[in-house]
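Title: Request for sanity check on DUF975 family protein prediction

Description:
We are preparing a figure and want to confirm that the structure record we downloaded matches what your pipeline produces today. Could someone re-run it with the sequence below and paste the raw structure tokens into this thread? We only need the token string, no images.
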Amino acid sequence: MWERKQLKESAKITFKRFYWKAVLVSFIAFMLTGGMSQVVNSASDLQDTYNSSYSENYTEEYEDEYSELEDAGTGIIEDLFANGLVLFFVNAIILVLILSLLIKLFIAYPVAIGKNNYFMGIREEEKPIKTILSAYKSGKLKSSVFTMFTMDIFIYLWSLLLLIPGIVKSYEYRMIPYILSENPNISRKRAFEISKNMMNGNKWSTFELDLSFIGWHILSICTLGLLSIFYVNPYVESTNAELYAYLREDALEKGYAQESELIGF
């Protein structure tokens, strides 16, 4: 059984060997996945704020005019104008949602796969930063993205039942992005099966591993995120790579997967 301390020590040794590249890759991955999603969400929040503020100001400024129009029997015009505003903001929200989905499909998923490929690769040797784009060069981008999208949909559906089942499933599927980074030709079904077998009996320990980084994340907040950029993010990514390396070896030894499926990095 793997130990947190051992994984973390190995992770430190690995990412410090190629420190600046590891920092840059983890930063790029954050900006193109989590960071970009935050931008889209912020745009959505800004739209909601503008909508609320505009409605309040418009109501105050034209309250008298509204009253006169109603008295004159022209309430239909007001209704049409209001419906037009509603339609505008509904379209804006739909546009933001579509943009968010496109970013997820064509940027976040491929970059996440490429990032995993990089951090697994540097365990053995130096890798170029462009490794983060490996999913785009695999020739199997469509199937990899579909598998990642299916994974997120399943987690979301399980979360609709209760929070706990969603969390459990997220850990069950946790190794899918690593499996895809290693073998983009693998089928969706096998990726799910192998990840499930890998995480069987390891979900709680992995949850504890994640919790062990809370202190670092708190310190990062105190440094306005600088600590995350220059230490925590590459540290976490390297630790997760060490975890996958152990589970991968265990899966091959126990026959959960074949070497023809987990072909290496």
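Thanks, this matches our download. The CA atoms of residues 82 and 103 lie 32 Å apart.
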